[in-house]
Automatic annotation (TrEMBL):
Domain NfeD-like C-terminal span(s) in chain numbering: 91-143
Keywords: Membrane, Transmembrane, Transmembrane helix
GO cellular component: plasma membrane
Membrane topology: Multi-pass membrane protein
PANTHER family linked to this entry: INNER MEMBRANE PROTEIN YBBJ
Organism of provenance: Chiayiivirga flava
Sequence intervals crossing the membrane: 6-23, 52-70
Main location, first listed in the record: membrane
Name listed for the protein in its UniProt record: NfeD-like C-terminal domain-containing protein
Entry's localization field: Membrane
Top-level taxon: Bacteria
């Protein structure tokens, strides 16, 4: 009897794949581990299956389990949110109008929004001018004067 023809080989392979999944998570090795467990079970039920037959069973079960894993992941994928800007505070400011806290000089000024100060970039404008937030670049608001 060859060591590849032993059911213990498949149990050990499954255990090694589960351990590999624990070390490098990504849920890929998990499904291959399930395929190895299935191959070990097939080997217990059909002990006359040769080494080549067991590898074919492992290949088929691997494909099936990875496909099943993708299906599970697809079903669990997050749905699109009804509030896509919920945790993106700066993006929530686009289109809103605020007075300038400090004038925009040399292309930069400052806005006070609620309890926070934001850097504003735009054309030269005096303090107190009402500006609309047109875009956000990191934590800098690009603004234009409101008519």
């Amino acid at each position: 009897m060859h060591w590849l023809d032993s059911q213990w080989f498949w149990w050990a392979t499954a255990l090694a794949l589960f351990a590999l999944e624990a070390i490098a998570p990504g849920t890929f090795f998990l499904w291959l581990g399930f395929a190895a467990l299935g191959t070990g079970l097939v080997h217990v039920l059909v002990p006359s299956l040769g080494v080549a037959g067991l590898w074919i069973v492992f290949a088929i079960l691997s494909l099936a389990s990875v496909w099943a894993g993708w299906e599970v992941r697809k079903r669990r994928a997050p749905r699109s949110s009804d509030q896509p800007l919920l945790n993106r505070r700066a993006a929530q400011l686009i289109g809103r109008v605020f007075p300038l806290d400090t004038p925009i000089e040399n292309g930069r000024g400052r806005l006070k929004i609620d309890d926070a100060f934001w850097i504003a970039e735009g054309p030269e404008l005096p303090s107190g001018t009402r500006v609309r937030v047109d875009a956000v670049d990191a934590m800098t608001l690009r603004v234009s004067a409101v008519d």
